[in-house]
């Protein structure tokens, strides 16, 4: 018990000591070279996360949200993937400039990632205790016995019942929710400053989703970590995230404090996403869907990438790429933390 | 059958008993326990295991089991048929056939195991590098493997043996040199799929280095095919070794070895058939044993492959 209270102290101090955000992504571009040509998966993404803050990154499949995360972690498949431009500042240092061996040392103790499908993200041939303990054995040189004790402690921390007797079980012997808890435990093991959760609840059923999400939020508060929550589900993030960035075709099209986005979206795409959530009070009506398909990243449409699907597209949308600009109230006061990449953001915001 | 299931069910909890003594009611099934159970439920595999076990016992205790010195010539008793003092008869130099067959198992076991082991060491190293790094490394290593693969085994082996001289070691080396490409190809192809698995990405995301990823996360998940191949092909290696001896380029002709015995027996075919039938039976049983074990191992390691 004493060890856990000590370890709980450390991240708090660490969080206070750090100046500025834990992570800042500046103008990040990622491209993939394929046979058909260069796929521009991420085209100038900017965002930042502070300790104790949760940023939700929302987007459809292929919007570049996972690729951004992989670029931050440094686990892009490269080649073919490549960061072609931009900076990733982690605790003030541009980690893209670091040699691979230095970056590897960051992964685990400083930043960690939670994957979507815990069954495939856990090695099937080792027991979960063995895999959890590996974190301590490898990064901290702990003995097998101590590592096992720590694994049990971690499993209890993520509320796995009967942790002591289940520590030698294999991943396939756990239920989906329990497996995801193990993934979370593994990411948390070394108390990193930043956790990226890539659709952590997508593979789970709805009731378990809420439990896992709550657990993640609790632990994040407890350790005062920065959390990037990647998702395509607006419902999942509402209660957990502080702010949200909506991605489309490798760009952030809108960012806002979480509740403001739900109240007043400033981009037609976000509007469309919100309208396509089934609602109880609209029972019997046809559900809204954004028409068309996400763009082919080999040749994104000219102008605003969303223009072919946008109900409000004008001529300017087909020629000029809108920048991510601050949005203002009717009286001209700037809304803090909000931005939209739409030529008609004000009209969208104010209806 | 019922005995087998009983024994495996009994072994399960006994193995993990110290870990969870409080709850003996729940028999924990470990992964190896499961594999063992599947293996033992396969009748052919058990037969194979018995044959292989017999071979090993014979090889170890050949001096105790043999009624005569396998080298001792008795020129007054040549070409005696089976029966009497010489249970399986004597050869053209009056040497006891049974003793020579029993001693022959030693060379078979040593060459079979050692050559496959060596082939696996080379093949796993090459296959793992090619599969994990892909691209240029893959092309270069696989083209080298192709060259060895395309080379006729017997010709290649004869060349190596001519250069190195006769003996057990050159035979082992020459067999290994021409069988590692299969191992490396098998491993490479399963690594190609395992490499893309999420747990490999997860391991990278948690700071594992390349060596750890290959040795701990990729190899254990892709080694099953190689293990089955290895067990399966010990028999093949034994046949190849006997062929080399039969052709007169294996171990020295006076050494009791199955290929040598067949080579000596070929002059008496149709006249003294017991000279070639018994060594042949020994070879057939040995190969069958390893093939059954290999098959059983493959099914036990990955039931989906069936």
From TrEMBL, chain A:
One of its GO terms (molecular function) is ATP binding. It is a peripheral membrane protein. Coiled coil: none annotated. It is found in: Cell membrane. PANTHER family: DIPEPTIDE TRANSPORT ATP-BINDING PROTEIN DPPD, OLIGOPEPTIDE TRANSPORT ATP-BINDING PROTEIN APPD. This is ABC transporter ATP-binding protein. Belongs to the ABC transporter superfamily. It holds the Pfam family oligo_HPY. It comes from Streptomyces cirratus. The lineage of its organism: Bacteria, Bacillati, Actinomycetota, Actinomycetes, Kitasatosporales. Residues 25-274 form the ABC transporter domain. Its main location: membrane. Keywords: ATP-binding, Cell membrane, Membrane, Nucleotide-binding, Transport.
From TrEMBL, chain B:
It is a multi-pass membrane protein. Pfam families: BPD_transp_1, OppC_N. The keyword Transcription does not apply. InterPro entries: BP-dependent_transpt_permease, MetI-like, MetI-like_sf, OppC_N. Keywords: Cell membrane, Membrane, Transmembrane, Transmembrane helix, Transport. The chain crosses the membrane at residues 44-65, 107-132, 144-164, 170-187, 218-240, 276-297. It is found in: Cell membrane. PANTHER family: D,D-DIPEPTIDE TRANSPORT SYSTEM PERMEASE PROTEIN DDPC-RELATED (PTHR43386:SF1), OLIGOPEPTIDE TRANSPORT SYSTEM PERMEASE PROTEIN APPC (PTHR43386). This is Peptide ABC transporter permease. It comes from Streptomyces cirratus. The lineage of its organism: Bacteria, Bacillati, Actinomycetota, Actinomycetes, Kitasatosporales.
């Amino acid at each position: 018990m004493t060890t856990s209270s000590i370890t709980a102290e450390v991240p708090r101090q660490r969080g206070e000591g750090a100046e500025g955000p834990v992570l800042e992504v500046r103008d990040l571009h990622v491209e993939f070279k394929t046979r058909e040509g260069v796929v521009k998966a991420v085209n100038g993404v900017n965002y930042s996360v502070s300790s104790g803050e949760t940023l939700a990154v929302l987007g459809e499949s292929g919007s570049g949200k996972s690729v951004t995360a992989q670029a931050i972690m440094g686990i892009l498949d490269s080649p073919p993937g490549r960061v072609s431009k931009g900076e990733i500042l982690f605790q003030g240092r541009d980690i893209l400039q670091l040699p691979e061996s230095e970056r590897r040392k960051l992964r685990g103790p400083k930043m960690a990632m939670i994957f979507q499908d815990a069954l495939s993200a856990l090695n099937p041939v080792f027991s979960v205790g063995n895999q959890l303990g590996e974190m301590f054995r490898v990064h901290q040189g702990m003995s097998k016995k101590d590592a096992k004790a720590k694994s049990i402690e971690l499993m209890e921390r993520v509320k796995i019942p009967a942790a002591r007797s289940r520590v030698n079980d294999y991943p396939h012997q756990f239920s989906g929710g329990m497996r995801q808890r193990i993934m979370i435990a593994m990411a948390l093991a070394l108390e990193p400053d930043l956790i990226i959760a890539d659709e952590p609840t997508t593979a789970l059923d709805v009731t378990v989703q809420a439990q896992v999400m709550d657990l993640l939020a609790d632990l994040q508060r407890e350790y005062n970590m920065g959390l990037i929550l990647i998702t395509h589900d607006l419902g999942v993030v509402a209660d957990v995230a502080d702010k949200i960035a909506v991605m489309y075709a490798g760009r952030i099209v809108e960012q806002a404090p979480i509740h403001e986005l739900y109240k007043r979206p400033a981009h037609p795409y976000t509007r469309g996403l919100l309208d396509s959530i089934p609602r109880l009070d609209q029972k019997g009506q046809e559900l809204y869907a954004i028409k068309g398909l996400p763009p082919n990243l080999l040749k994104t449409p000219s102008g605003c990438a969303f223009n072919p699907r946008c109900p409000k597209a004008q001529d300017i949308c087909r020629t000029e790429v809108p920048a991510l600009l601050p949005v203002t109230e009717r009286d001209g006061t700037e809304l803090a933390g909000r931005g939209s990449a739409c030529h008609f953001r004000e009209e969208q915001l104010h209806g | 059958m019922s005995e087998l299931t009983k024994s495996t069910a009994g072994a399960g909890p006994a193995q993990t008993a110290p870990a969870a003594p409080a709850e003996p009611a729940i028999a924990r099934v470990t992964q190896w326990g499961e594999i063992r159970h599947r293996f033992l439920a396969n009748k052919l595999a058990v037969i194979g295991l018995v044959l292989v076990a017999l071979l090993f016992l014979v090889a170890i205790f050949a001096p105790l089991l043999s009624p005569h010195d396998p080298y001792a010539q008795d020129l007054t008793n040549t070409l005696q048929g089976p029966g009497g003092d010489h249970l399986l008869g004597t050869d053209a130099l009056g040497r006891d056939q049974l003793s020579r067959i029993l001693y022959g198992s030693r060379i078979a076991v040593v060459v079979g195991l050692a050559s496959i082991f060596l082939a696996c060491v080379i093949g796993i190293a090459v296959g793992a590098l090619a599969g994990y790094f892909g691209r240029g490394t893959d092309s270069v290593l696989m083209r080298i493997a192709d060259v060895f693969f395309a080379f006729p085994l017997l010709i290649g082996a004869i060349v190596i043996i001519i250069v190195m001289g006769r003996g057990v070691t050159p035979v082992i080396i020459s067999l290994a040199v021409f069988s590692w490409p299969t191992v490396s190809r098998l491993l490479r192809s399963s690594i190609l799929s395992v490499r893309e698995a999420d747990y490999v990405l997860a391991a990278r995301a948690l700071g594992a280095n390349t060596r750890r990823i290959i040795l701990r996360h990729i190899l254990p998940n892709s080694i099953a095919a190689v293990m089955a191949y290895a067990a399966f092909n010990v028999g093949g290696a034994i046949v190849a070794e006997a062929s080399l001896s039969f052709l007169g380029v294996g171990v020295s002709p006076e050494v009791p070895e199955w290929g040598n015995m067949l080579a000596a027996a070929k002059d008496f075919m149709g006249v003294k058939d017991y000279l070639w039938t018994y060594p042949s039976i020994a070879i057939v049983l040995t190969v069958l044993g390893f093939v059954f074990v290999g098959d059983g191992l493959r099914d036990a390691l990955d039931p989906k492959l069936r």
